[in-house]
Amino acid sequence: MNSSKTTATGHPPKEESRWQTTPWVGLLSLAALVVCAIIAAVVVGISHDDEVSSWSVAPAVLLAILSAASNIAFGSALATGIVVRFWRYAARGATPSQLHYIWDHGRGFGLFGALRAGSEARTVALMATLAYITQFASGPLLQRSTDQAIEVREAPQTLNLDLAAHIPDGWLGVMENGVSIGFRKGITEVQQNFRNTSMRTRDVPGYACAAGTCHGVVRGAGLSASCSTTTQLVQMNSTDNNGLPVFAINATMLVNGVPFAVPFVGDGTNNSYHPATDTASLRLFVLHASSVNESCVTTLTIDTCDFRAAVVEYPVTIRNSTITLQLDKLTQMNVVSTTSSPNDLPTAPNGTAAGLLSSLRTMIDGNYATNTTKLWKPQANVTVYGGDGSTLPDKFFLPESPSYADGSPTRKCALTWDSPTEYVLRELHTFVFRCALRLGAEQNETQTVDGRRAVVVAVYQTDPRYLGAAMAAMVVSLGLVAALMRGWWRLPRPVTLSPLETAGVLRGVDVLEEIAEDVPLKKVLKRLERVETGLEGSKNGSATVSRVNTGLPGPQGGGKVDVEVVAVSVKGEGTSSPR
Predict the structure, then answer these.
(1) Phi-psi bin for 322: left (phi > 0), alpha (psi -120 to 50), beta?
(2) Residue 479: left if φ>0, alpha if ψ -120 to 50, beta else—which one?
(3) Residue 494 has pLDDT above 90, yes or no
(4) Strand 245-255 to strand 280-292: parallel, antiparallel, or no bridges (unpaired)?
(5) Range of the domain at 261
(6) How many CA atoms lie within 13 A of 535 on its CB side?
């Protein structure tokens, strides 16, 4: 048989250009996989710490869209890779069963047959299966890479607050025999302080803190406090010191740091005090039994605090129009300046407008002062406490102290208290703040609150572990699909797995019999007659269409049928030719 360089039509075979033989759909699908992976990583990355409200489309929705697009591109690229592998292995002489398993690429139970069908089919099946798995895993991993969390976000915030910087003499009371007699306003603030009535600012923009919590400092009338602590040891199981204070709170006025008696005895005009130069202050005395040892020796802790009228920076929190003081910071407030009023001196005549400290002393005496003493009862071998009827000692007494445990040697004398000093200090600071707040509202005295606004927001949080795993899975699936497409440039023309294209070489009963015997494809082609294949005149390989005598009768018993068969030759991998 003579070799021919012409097709069945008598014309030379037309060579395909590289542009025409390039599997653009597969390559563009690979590019789409890369783009989807990059966009997914960018979405997850830039959404980190972003507020949920700032995204009109949630990252999870975008990731779902990208996953769907990636799956479509993956399917297209994988299909191209299977086509390339099918025709490359067909040119090498793969058996029909191997080609079948390459076409099937391990789907379903076909994987088990592919593992036994030879290295080519096994390689394709394993690569495709692993690509499926990694591509599938990338979706859930991407979804897990971003989540929502609750955070408190802060930003600078400046508000206004009606707050007096100075409480004038007489606003709280009037002097009578060296003691302030309280007015209605002072009593009201004492009651509201006792009841912990809510403090409010104007419910208007610039004053109220809407949709969040504002906290900062504001200057206003207050107290400067200087405190010191001493201790004293006393024997509790003794009658010699019955009546000794074990829990006490009281206050006294000072002039130049020295206590003076109240009421002051003098003519009110001619005395040793000089209003122009003397400075009045208030001293708070707080005592409590803090501990006891096995010998019933108790430690008395004595706190002494001296107060002066001052301008201080209050730590405030504003939610909507409600104001609260940050109690844990009240005893560490910054003091801007201090003032002194001559009306707090003992020389103030009756009927004089009372200063802040004198009014504060009266408030302490009426609401917090107590003198609780101990009493040792030898007959009962026990120590008890009693006093002036104030309930404050009961609020700080420690009935569950280990000293009270059954069998403890200190059980008979275990009178101990928590320190009330912090509580009293906070109460005094809060009382003065309430007074300044009311006075500021009365006279429209406005201060600036320099602080920050805290808002509870939902934000996106990125988990780098899941993001890294998702990117790794996408890279693996991309690499596997690209590996399956490797060698597409060796194919001389665009190819598919269409039955119209693959069935041409398998027509005829004799061919089907060879397939049943699992004969290599090259041997099947050798049984066909007048097949023209080869690389003649083509540097890059070619595909020729030849007439093949199948030996089958024509229609209505006519002549035998010639079938056009496409024989593919791949560059560098040999050709199939008839014998």
Answers:
(1) beta
(2) alpha
(3) no
(4) antiparallel
(5) 153-458
(6) 13
